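ok so i was messing around last nite and threw this chain in just to see what happens. nothing serious, just curious
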Amino acid sequence: MTLPVMLYPRSLGLTRWMELLSDGVMELSPFAHSLDTGPMTTTSGSGTTQEEKPQGMVKLHRLPVFSEKGGGGALGDDLVFTVSRKKFVIKPFNLPPVEGDTEAQRGEGEGKPTAVDIEF
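result:
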């Protein structure tokens, strides 16, 4: 079931009642449109890959529970979605490193902290 938040805000009793009856509730918030909507090219050690730019944020309000132990997943993660002709993809949202930070771009400094790094 799909409800537009503009017509049925989450503060209404009817909307909250339908959320209680549903197994899973998620909210899709689109980003503002930009002129360059083409795929984003990223280069890594294995080669060049084509990734589509994220089109909006996903907020998970409620997930179905798969077993009596839980297993509903993490609700606090930042997720983004991408829609194309053939697929709808939800993936974690990661910001790229700052352009002046060359260590983060090369992946250095991600090892275990040494005694020099930890001082009391």
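not much to say yet. Residues 43-48 have pLDDT under 50 and may be disordered.
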